[in-house]
Hints:
Layout: E1 4-5, E2 13-14, H1 41-44, E3 50-54, E4 59-64, E5 66-67, H2 76-92, E6 113-115, E7 125-129, E8 155-159, H3 163-168, E9 172-175, E10 180-186, E11 203-207, E12 213-217, E13 232-233, E14 238-241, E15 252-258, E16 264-265, E17 291-298, E18 318-320, E19 325-335, E20 340-345, E21 351-357, E22 363-373, E23 383-391, E24 394-403
Parallel strand pairs: 18-24
Antiparallel strand pairs: 1-5, 2-4, 3-21, 4-22, 6-9, 7-8, 8-15, 9-14, 10-11, 10-13, 11-12, 12-15, 15-16, 17-19, 19-22, 20-21, 20-23, 23-24
EC number: 3.4.-.-
InterPro entries: Cell_wall_metabolism_enzyme, Dup_hybrid_motif, M23ase_b-sheet_dom
Signal peptide: 1-43
Amino acid sequence: MLRKNRMPEHHRASNNANARRARGAPALCLALALAASSLPASAADDAAPRDVSGTAPNASAGGAYAVAEHGEHLSPQFRQRAWNDIRDNARKLKLAAAPRSSARSLGGFAWPLALNNGLADPGYHAISNYVDQAGAGQVLDYSCGARSYDGHRGTDYYLWPFSWYKMDNNQVKVIAAAAGTIVGRYDGNFDRSCSVNNNNWNAVYVQHADGSVAWYGHMKNGSVTAKGVGASVAQGEYLGIVGSSGSSTEPHLHFEVYDANANLIDPYAGSCNGLNLSSAWAAQRPYYDSAINKLIVGNAQPAFASCPNAESPNENTALRYGQQASFSAFYRDQLNGQQSQYRILRPNGTVFASWTHNGPAPHYASSWWNWTWSSFAPSGPAGVWRFEVAYNGTTYSKNFTLSP
């Protein structure tokens, strides 16, 4: 289960006095531009470009999701029903469980998400919650941090940016982390949940050759694999589309793993993982998996609607001389010490504008920053331009055209 809470004031930013207020539901809020006059000077300056060279933007804005959880939302009764189904189906299928002495031995998992339906962005997700290692009123993740909530038994991967837009357009699919047999399959349930509830989810449970079981939950209604209980799935095979079914506040994948003895597994190895010693991943991603998920060029800032309405990316890569032009970058796991170097390049490779920026908070699970020119390049030149960001050792770019 995933919840987005309203972001603290000091994590919102804009230096545009005419910027619009964010729209949001109580459980979901993305930081959008706010009037500078309503913010402390330090907050209004959060999105301001540094070391500007060339033509400076007229306005800047940005902010981050504030990700928090407040209690376990897969109830004991829900879990008991799930385990009853899994065990009944495994028994009917005569699936052999691994010897009890082999508990907690897992490995070789593939990443459980993939691009789909033409999406070509460099990234598409962020992590809100890892497995809680502590429980009993305490929170501790595998790396000795607190990126979880009390009692959370899985890993939550939410879509970022534009989670509802991505869900509606089937842009991120859930795939099998390991080969196995389907021992539970649920579809046909409501998938636009915005709050904690008792609804059933759309999910697939897969039992692996060693007797371990992976749960894939919250998928989109009607998207779950047509394969039924008893069918085999290969590693990397399609299971469904990321959605918001069941007790959920935004489209995300809840990924939960148990060994052959039904002991909870945290697939991430770390110094505070007391559940299992080794990583379940073939290639474990870092705790702070810092990257840019998307760059956008358009005539207006992206627009974020209240849950469960789809966002409007407002992407337009065919600009005209002197029009308003908006440039946005969407990050995951942005750290304050990581400087981004921005450039807008003319068709001949010369620099129209360059600047640097650091996120003001020590860590953002997901963040976005925007710079706008009210009248972009009124004299051209025409041709193919490039918006470019160098961040954390990688250069990301987005081409756009400019014409009279």
